Amino acid sequence: xxSRLRAMIRVRALLADLESCRSTVAEQGRQIASHAESLAHxxxxxxxxxxxxxxxxxxxxxxxxxxxxARQVIQHQASQLAQLDRFGILLAHIEKRVFSPEVLLxxxxxxxxxxxxxxxxxxxxxxxxxxxADPKSVLDYADLLASGFRVFSQNDEDGVLLRIFSKIGMTxxxxxxIGSNCSGSDIGIPENLSANLIIHHGWHGVVVELDxxxxxxxxxxxxxxxxxxxxxxxxxxxxxxxxxxxLQREVTPDNIDALFAEARxxxxxxxxxxxxxxxxxxxxxxxSTVRPRVVVVEFEKRFRERFxxxxxxxxxxxxxxxxxxxxxxxxxQALMGARGYALTAIATCGFNAFFVRNDLAEGQFAPLSxxxxxxxxxxxxxxxxxxxxxxxxxxxxxRHEGRxxxx
Length: 407
Known about the structure:
Elements: H1 2-96, H2 101-107, H3 120-132, H4 141-146, H5 157-168, E1 174-178, H6 195-201, E2 204-209, H7 212-224, E3 232-235, E4 238-241, E5 245-248, H8 256-262, E6 271-274, H9 280-286, E7 294-298, E8 309-310, H10 329-338, E9 341-346, E10 352-357, H11 358-361, H12 370-375, E11 396-397
Parallel strand pairs: 1-2, 1-6, 2-5, 6-7
Antiparallel strand pairs: 3-4, 7-10, 8-11, 9-10
Helix pairs in contact: 1-7, 3-5
């Protein structure tokens, strides 16, 4: 009997323990449910805060974009106000009929590009007709040097180009120019090789420039010029001009073909110019979608023809001395020769080289080597030895078909 009683007491104790455990588990369950509910509430708060932060980030990005656009507009307006101030000073001098040396410098076409003559187009077309009537069958280097003059070009490239096209003719009158600015003018007149052809000879095309302020200056100029102001279009609330098409882009070997595809450039444009102060050679090496009839490139003249070298890293441009290019003339001749182009001239100041496609140059232009371009140059042939330099370790030698060495 006692043993049965003890067993019943143990059973009751176990049942009491079990009930206590059940109560404990139920309480812990309630706590877990409460914690889960709190966690769900916190999660909802986090989601709401995350959504709010995403909205604020989007807003900040949009505000940053608007601030960038506003800065560009303010810079452009500040430039215009400065121009108006200069015009006011000039008008005051005109009324007094007294000109200070500073004003005389501003209105001198030999110092700054602030005045364009109205009869340029007629004179240039008459000159081209005279050249075309020249019975001379083959133009040589001296002919092209003697033809140079400047309207929009930095030096005498405008005239050299017209002499070349008076010989081979103009087809689609399409120009592609990479690198342009208005630095030679107080009133936003472009300094490049395409503007004279566009303004005075009915050309059209694309001008690509990295600097957004310079792009706005060029758009403003072409929107006011009588030759181009009518090529107007509206995209949404933005007014633009489709000829010439001013693109604000960074040009690289990887995007050059896509860029010209975007611009819908013809397969054989009449003219291609590249001047980006670094990377020109690699961009030209990568170009494959178009085959221009004439190509103008900028070269480093202080190596003469003695070194066939390229400076691949544009960060090194003009660190040692003021450079005129990042590839020697010999390097350009190696690359362009491999691509089927003939060197016809370098400009009088020795910055730009002119290449004509072989199928057009044959029988029209006398062959010109890189050494002859210097030896027969009226100025560079007599330059002192101190002008000529040797490349440092930022330059690499070009060996096979003008191609840059691979890493």
